[in-house]
Specification:
The complex is a heterodimer. By secondary structure, chain A is an all-alpha fold. Chain A contains 15 helices and no strands. Chain A has helices at residues 9-40, 44-48, 62-68, 71-102, 112-124, 129-138, 146-149, 156-169, 172-180, 185-196, 198-214, 217-222, 231-240, 251-257, 260-293. In chain A, helix 4 packs across helix 13 and helix 13 crosses helix 15. Chain B folds into 2 domains: 3-49, no CATH class; 76-311, Orthogonal Bundle (MetI-like fold). Chain B has 15 helices and no strands. Chain B has helices spanning 3-8, 13-48, 62-65, 72-79, 81-113, 118-133, 136-146, 153-162, 176-201, 205-213, 218-240, 250-256, 262-265, 268-278, 282-311. Classes of the chains: A mainly alpha, B mainly alpha.
Amino acid sequence: MYHHYQKSLSYKIFTIFNYTFLTVAALLCILPLIHILAVSFSGSAAATANLVGFWPVDFTLDAYEKTIGNENFLRSLWNSFLRVVLGTAISMAVMLCAAYPLSKSDKAFRGRKIYMWFFVFTMLFHGGLVPTYMVVTKLGLTDTIWALILPSAVSSFNLILLVNFFRTSVPKSLEEAALMDGANHFTIFWKIYLPISVPAIATISLFTMVFHWNSWFDGMIYMSDVKHYPLSTFLQTIIVQQDFTKMSVDAETLQNLSERTVKAAQIFIAALPMLIVYPFVQKFFVKGIVLGAEKE
Amino acid sequence: MQPTVDLKRQTTAVGTRKQWKLKGTWQLHTMLLPALAIVFIFQYIPMFGLVMAFQDYEPWLGFLHSPWVGLEHFKTMFEYEDARQVIWNTLVISTLKIIFNLAVPLAFALLLNEIYVMKFKRTVQTIVYLPHFLSWVILGGILIDILSPEGGMVNRVLTALFGIEPIFFLGDNDWFRTVVVVTDIWKECGFNTIVFLAALTSINPSLYEAAIVDGANRWQQTIYITLPSMLPIIIVVGTLSLGNILNAGFDQILNLYNPLVYKTGDIIDTYVYRVGLLNGDFSYATAVGLFKSIISFILVVIGYRLAYKYANYKIF
């Protein structure tokens, strides 16, 4: 890959600028996180005196010990874990079952178009915050994990991605052959569609897991007790809002929670799962985005 | 329906398939049922709940007995100074975001495309995607720390380099919108380059070869080949973002704002949340939300139409 124009002086100057610019851009994306990491491993006094840059000062694990020792934090971590696992499982089961019939041709499944619009319309128009809140409340879902799982279980966008995947990747001949052998739809779905779609299922599952791990607003409006908060909501309350009124904690824990190093440790722990998985999942995301943007 | 039953019926292949299709569709409908139920309950029922916007809804009276007030709440909204300010803030912030979230990733993709050391390119890509995967709660926590006027990292750097007095970025009405737009670009820019990079790889290389034979330099190739080839995807991204003109970023602003910057930073969604859920003024908040939903709906439909007309884009 060497082109003639690359020899010109102006292109060489541009290349130097380009490498510098992209390096700076990449640093800007990662340095804030490194700073937070450095603060979380620093001594409390050094952090408060703004002495920490991108390397810990007076290295200590104190902040992490205090974080792990806080039962509110641990419980919210557990709530988040439960939410991610249960939410993703339910969401995927429901969406895969729906994507199968929707992937049929209009001729093979009359009514497909109507169903499709039923889902797509929700991407165009929303009832809005207050009516949705009232439905969830009236159903008695508040303070249960279902309030965090059911309202968002079907994402029309992800559903369309699955439908498109089914339509393009499952060989029609295989399905025809199974039909000849007398297999019914449930069997075809289970034995042919699902095994072929493992990459797509993995991709959409990852979308959904990231969504559940990061969601915090539903936890805040549907959970009245801090015991039921997922981690994101818990952090939003104590770090962003700095509201400790909902927590029944002793003065010492309160003191710990407001320490800068402890805040940094909590932020880092919450970011950690994403930091670990995203380099692996980014290529799936890239696929999903491209799939969504330019379809056949 | 059972495989065995169907096997017995297998007299002629065509006849069996017709029968099977008729018999089989009930299975297809059944498989859709859970998804239909969930979407109906959590998406469509709230739409019926929008009647609240035309009532003075009282929880103990319910939808059936709450008094009707017609367009009262909509009138209030346009007369109320707060609401008008909120609509204006929303428009300013979202317009800036739409423009920069199109232009910056496009430029970034073009720059990345000029890198021929693949390891460097991939490393930069991986790093700039990172903020996209972190929630606004985490980023909010980080930003509050590094933008703090009391020794936040950013202010320390600014003071060291330029000797500026510390700036209260998240508490100053002159700065808040800038911070919101810049941090949003910071979070999404890398990720938004993906569609553009994909489009770049699909440009026919023979176009460039022909241009090189004609003696075009890289800049001329970019202007006359790359950008025109990218036009369809630019149109798609641009027209589809039309629907976001009233979405200024609820998650982000709720995690960054505070009463000091309500004047420039309060947007429709945060306003609806405070008025509706925190103050309990259900009907008025629903009216403001409905206003937003209707305008967004019209713009989304226009956006899809334009994307279809000019770039042949279809959602399904």
